[in-house]
Amino acid sequence: MNKVAVKPSVVRWARERSGKDMADLAKRFPKLPQWEGGEAQPTFKQLERFAKATLTPLGALFLEEPPDEKLPVADFRTLKGRQPARPSAALMTTVQHMQRRQEWMREYLIEAGEEPLAFVGTVTLASSRVDAANTIRRTLGVDDGWASTHPTWSAALLGLRRAVEEIGVLVVVNGVVENNTRQKLDPEEFRGFVLCDDYAPLIFINGADSTSAQMFTLAHELAHLWLGTGGVFNLVDLQPYDDDVERFCNEVAAEVLIPGDELDGCWPSVAKSAEPFQALARRFKVSPLVAARRVLDRQLMTRDDFYDFLGQYAADERRSSAQRPSGGNFYNAQQGRVGRRFGSAVIRAAREGRLLYRDAYRLTGLHGRSFDQFAQTLGL
Fold first, then answer.
1. Residue 245 neighbours by CB under 8 Å, 6+ apart
2. Is residue 251 part of a domain?
3. Cα Rg of the chain (Å, integer)
4. What is the per-residue pLDDT across 314-371, written as a single tens digit (0 to 9) for each?
5. Considering only CA atoms, which of 373, 273, 369 is closest in space to residue 329?
6. Which structural domain, as residue segments, surrounds residue 47?
7. pLDDT digits (tens, 9 = 90+) for 252-303
8. Of 18, 45, 62, at which residue does a domain stop?
9. Secondary structure of residue 352 in the 3-state scheme
10. Residue 83 has what pLDDT?
11. Is residue 3 part of a domain?
């Protein structure tokens, strides 16, 4: 069989970039150690399978040396106080896929004669955080106490997502690469990102994160849109990347979800409860960590007390993360993975003959009967 001359350093780069260790990949590619050592070479078929398994563009495996790969959006991620050196294949693939969706949606809206969205880029870093948060809440049509009217975190998040989509923002929630449940997205690497645009802004939320944490991610990315900036972030221990934009977005997000005046009013009674931060979390439908940080920012607790809580909270999260349920209804999941606004536009364009079904399948990641069934769940 014909072998393909690939550079060992490129094979190693692809394997390391995928986040998979040698032992796991060697089960599928027994000669992988020899490929990396330059002692053997793969066939073209093997290389195709390896590219798919590592989420590597096939053409990249023919390069003379590993590429200097960078995210196509601003990188606000931190890892123990340092910016990560290289994004994973899962993150790169997800960002690129969302960019393709956004490009199509932008062209679709312009051809339909839609006007650009008026709110994108309407605040600056000099703006009042409270004023910016109030503008966002007013645009979304959410009043004080809105979160407490929802019975669960999931219901509140769904309600906020729907409100965000109603103002023209594409919202995607997914914890895997497209529909590949074997390719997980790691919340430690990134919690979400935003692709800013005045016609088709897109917010991506890592669905592998907790529901309450996803709420803060959505509010954080909304602040980015009002600033008119994009980027990807992970927010380790609720500490933003050392950047004025990230600090601003964090502060605005906190005010959107837990208005300072409302917190000041309820804190005296909540503080007397056995678990005050959990009580605030249930009321505002945010994580207890977000609630505690907000209390600290309002100078209602000491920094030492906050870090004591942070240590306990981190330990509790580690214990509970392995117990989070997975799975669920496939078509309900698609409403998050595809998004109602984007999915509806693609379905209508395909039915009207403005988009080939082949391209509609590629954009949504759904094919044939799955595509039709998804349309039914949207009422189309």
1. 74, 76, 125, 224, 227, 229, 231
2. yes
3. 22
4. 676 655 554 455 555 676 778 888 989 999 999 999 999 999 999 999 999 898 888 9
5. 373
6. 8-62
7. 998 998 998 899 999 999 988 888 888 988 888 888 888 888 888 888 888 8
8. 62
9. coil
10. 60
11. no
Residue in this structure with the two tokens 């988009």, named with its chain if needed: 355
User: For residue 360, what are the CA distances in angstroms to 111, 200, 344, 352?
Assistant: 17, 17, 11, 12
Residues 253 and 125 in one domain: yes
- Identify whether residues 176 and 229 lie together within a single domain: yes
Q: How many CB atoms lie within 10 A of CB 192?
A: 26
Inside any domain, residue 308: yes
pLDDT of residue 183: 83
Q: Are residues 288 and 371 in the same domain?
A: no
Going 26 to 27 to 28 to 30, the CA torsion angle's sign is: positive
Orientation angle between helical segments 44-53 and 8-18, nearest 10 degrees: 30
What pLDDT shows up at residue 292?
Answer: 87
Assess whether 202 and 118 both reside in one domain.
yes
* Segment (H or E) for 364: helix 357-364
Q: In total, how many domains does the chain have?
A: 4
Contact 160, 215 (CB under 8 A): yes
Q: Indicate the pTM of the whole model.
A: 0.84
The answer to whether position 139 is within a domain reads yes
3-class state of residue 73 by DSSP: coil
